Amino acid sequence: MKPATPTPHRLPHLPFLQGLLPFNPAQLPHDIIAGITLAALGIPEVMGYTKIAGTPTVTGLYTILLPLLAFALFGASRQLVVAADSATAAILAGTLTAVAALGSKDYVALTSTVALTVAVMLVIARVFRLGFLADFLSRSALIGFLTGVGIQVAAGELAGLIGIAKQGHGPLMQIASVLQRVAEANYPTTMLSIGVLVVIIGCKRFVPRAPGALIAVIGSIVASGVFNFAGHGIAVTGEVPGGLPSWFLPPLHMGEINQVLVTAASCFIVIIAQSAATARAYANRYNERGDDNADIIGLAAANAAAAFTGTFVVNGSPTKTEMLDDAGGRTQVAHLTTAAIVLLVLLFLTKPLSLLPAAVLSAIVFMIGVKLIDVKGMIELFRMQKDELVVALLTAGVVVFVDVMHGILAAVVLSLIAHARHSYRLRTRVLTRGPGDSWIARHVEPNLLAAPGIVVYRFEADLFYANTGRFTEEVLKLVNEASPGLRWVVIDASEINNIDYTAGKTLIQLGGELDKHGVGIAAVALPSGVRHEIERYKALRVTGVHREVFATVDAAIEALRDISPSTSSTSQDAKPK
């Protein structure tokens, strides 16, 4: 963990400027330098994302102008960088092409409509305090999703690297198409791409702090102007409009509304999950308080700014946030610095950008795609949690073989299935006495007793409809296979925080079944836990049967050690012993 930069307490009553205030003069030079660094590294990257999204190059610059300012004003995170992102750009290209041709005027307009729709969804999420939705996309599913997007992005740029037209739908078809047409490669373009890749990889390997992508961009622009690349068959970006973005009202036609909503919903899920995960990680790193719901308002404002300036969806970017953090940026002052530099580029430096070879952007995007392929994360899942590796691989497979939109749905569904599976395949134990009268938790097996004739069964999860079968089966197995027979089953519910209706009825039925065996049932539950639920369901208060709820396992054993269950005794109120 990096050392925390001490900052005064926030002003929690302010609904905005939380990423800027309180102002720390000593941090200002570091934030300005970090903002300059982010601009140097981020400008080539966001220009590359336009190739993924299928929009004009200048729209990438727009994503780190007003959207960056909007989040700095309305967001809560002091570190999170909100700009163009490969995952959401891939969702746009993978879904909107069903209603408009990639790169067409109608398509570009639709990307802004999606951004505005996402902003509305985020506002609704804030009203209902839905920041917790980020928790429903597991890290393993996110690893798989981003890996699938990385494969899709990298495969889509192979044709551009060798100067041929991109053909085929989906990564596999695109790779096959390139292999079939490799003899048609434009050799000057191919050599340029190799040179750019060498510069980017070499800088990363030998001079990690050097902006390899920026060096490649500047070097290729200079070479393009000096040697007239366009005249030698190397495609260049072409005219990049200068000046401030125009005010733009995103259109919406009823025939496109379904596709817009589906695309926006997919982007919304990624934005909520990825932005919250990134913001939390950096807040934890510097011992700061995060606020997911406040960040949602910042993300909504950023996407509204993107929509009204004619660009596409923006998202909390892990890569840019790490760039900024590594450069020493600790507050949103760094983001304001980046936006100021982008403004200067738009006003005075768009003409040189028109000379930028298209292959350079293809190489930058290709490396972005390769970086998203999380081999390290997959290996870690294989070593530590093989069942979650399956979730990651399935999610990646859906992205690669179907599309990004279904990949998002698969990520959410598989995350929920994994959660339900872990809740169903929970840990259960029986307690026995250990040295010094301590309790030892053992695997559930018959004839492991807490005292003569008494078994203590601990259930270490919430009891709900999906796991009541396991609960009943194990308790009855302990009773049926006990030798000699049991007198009491004590349910240790101290680890249970909730009992749903199905589980409550199951407890009542289990009590009746144990009565037939002549075995009593009692429970251990804390007043702060599920004691009131047990009493509400009257699971242990049946007329004519002695059943009780105890505060501790020791109290239960002490009270039950010398008595036998009796169906003739008067029902007692549940009281802690």
Q: Helix and strand layout, with pairings?
A:
Elements lengths: L27 H26 L3 H6 L3 H9 L7 E2 L2 H10 L9 H23 L11 H18 L1 H4 L9 H10 L6 H20 L5 H16 L29 H29 L6 H17 L6 E2 L1 H9 L6 H16 L1 H4 L4 H15 L2 H10 L1 H16 L2 H21 L3 E6 L5 E4 L11 E6 L8 H13 L7 E5 L8 H16 L3 E5 L6 H6 L12 E2 L2 H8 L17
Parallel strand pairs: 5-6, 6-7, 7-8
Antiparallel strand pairs: 1-2, 3-4, 3-5
Key features of this structure:
elongated; 23 helices; disordered C terminus; 2 domains; mainly alpha; 577 residues; six-stranded mixed beta sheet; Transcription Regulator spoIIAA; two-stranded antiparallel sheet; single chain; disordered N terminus
Number of domains: 2
What strand order characterises the main sheet? 4-3-5-6-7-8
**In what range is the share of β-strand residues?**
5-15%
3D shape: elongated
Helix content: 55-70%
Annotation field: number of helices:
23
Mean pLDDT, to the nearest integer, reads: 85
Radius of gyration: 30 Å
Distance between the termini: 47 Å
Describe the structure.
With 577 residues, the chain is mainly alpha-helical. The protein folds into 2 domains: 28-375, no CATH class; 428-560, STAS domain (Transcription Regulator spoIIAA, 2-Layer Sandwich). It contains 23 helices and 8 strands. The chain has a 6-stranded mixed sheet with strand order 4-3-5-6-7-8. Helix 1 runs parallel beside helix 4 (86-95) and helix 1 (28-53) crosses helix 14 (333-348). The model is unreliable at 3-13 and 567-577 (pLDDT under 50).
